[in-house]
Amino acid sequence: MASLAGMLQARGHHVTGSDQNVYPPMSTMLQSLNIKVLQGFNANNLTAAPDCVIVGNAIPRGNPEVEETLRRKLLYRSQAEVVKEEFIRGSHSLVVAGTHGKTTTTSIASWVVDQGGLDPSFLIGGVAQNFGTSFRVTNSDYICIEGDEYDTAYFDKGPKFMHYLPEIAIVNNIEFDHADIYADLDAVKLAFRRFMNLVPGNGRLIAGWDSANVRAVVQVMGARLFTNLETFGFSDEAKWQVRNADLSGSVSQFEVFCENKLWGKFETPLLGEFNLLNCLAVIIAANAWGINKDLIVKALQTFKNVKRRAEVRGEERGVTVIDDFAHHPTAVRETLRALRTRYADRRLIAVFEPRSWSSRLAVFQDDYADAFTPADYVVIADVFDSQKVSEKGRALDTVQLIQAVASQNKPAIALPGADQIVAHLTPELRAGDVVAIMSNGGFGSIHEKLLSSLRL
What we know:
The protein is an alpha/beta fold and about 450 residues long. The chain has 3 domains: about 1-75, 3-Layer(aba) Sandwich (Rossmann fold), CATH 3.40.50.720; about 80-300, 3-Layer(aba) Sandwich (UDP-N-acetylmuramoyl-L-alanine:D-glutamate ligase), CATH 3.40.1190; about 310-455, Protein-Tyrosine Phosphatase, Chain A (Alpha-Beta Complex), CATH 3.90.190.20. The protein has helices spanning about 1-10, 25-30, 65-70, 80-90, 100-115, 185-195, 210-220, 275-290, 295-300, 330-340, 355-360, 365-370, 385-390, 400-405, 420-425, 445-455; strands spanning about 15-20, 35-40, 55, 75-80, 90-95, 120-130, 135, 140-145, 150-155, 155-160, 170, 205-210, 230-235, 240-245, 250-260, 260-270, 310-315, 320-325, 350, 375-380, 410-415, 435-440.
């Protein structure tokens, strides 16, 4: 929503917004754009009737501004509808979907397509550090966009990515997530099958073949997949493969094979096998759009990642503090595995806040215990806004989770929130430690608090 506000302003529209508890990096981006954000929701915010009220997917009936919009019969649209009609229709669109890696992959794609000379517009669910922003509006007819499977608005419960008109679609992986809106894995797979069915005959579906669920969805479609299929992964069955990967240094190096023939050699500052797959998906898309291979190589070498994706926030007293958005157990595990490889000889402390709907529910109780295996020391915060969780189901039991982690013979503790965690960790930390803080929210500004405490 913040990025869309910036895109609409770039098109010459006057934009204001209402929200609660806005936090960086989006709050600072909006401030830099001089887009006024009203704190809280009030019907009076619509006194001067806007031409269109854009309703985010977190806004329910009963919200004062929604009720005023309906009472006065003002024009309203979802974020995804506006993006489709204002920015995608008529363009060459690359839509990145999948349970994990969407933001990073869309950011890589935007940078590679930019360095390839196509000057794309883009819309990303995070701040791409190469651009210093989460969006851009250009005059070209190319756009890269993150395709989210979460629902669109209270009046449109389908996935946002169903609005995005993909010419090229990347589906890295499929897992059960968003337990608040999807009943089970089959419901998630159905949503992705419908998304794949949007890709035109002259387009590309770039499918992550290491994901058994992606393969299953594609195979179910069979002859009903009316587009060109490009498969990728470490798997021997994939058309495009990552081989001979070296993740041990300050940059990750790998080779790409296509139909068992060496296609190119690449390197990236990104860590982890999952990021090599993100890069490979973009390589395939860029090749489909005719971008020169040498330009792809140079773009991947200079990609700077996304804020809050294994982002080093600072170092004090020899302790490195890392901020990561991971919240699904698979993302937690893969992030910690990647950090373990990059910082092989250092103690790795994992700090986790259950904040997304799925992480707050008990649906992944057992999976989280395994997810923290690569860490040497684990700290779990209280379930965010736990009083609301009971409306959706049984909450994650953090005490039980800590007991399961501690059974792996490593220190583990549950603490209420940021202040208590900082107070506990500061005297425990020593030079060489790496603290990976994982949350999909602001987490009480824990990163700054920990770094400040270490300075004292």
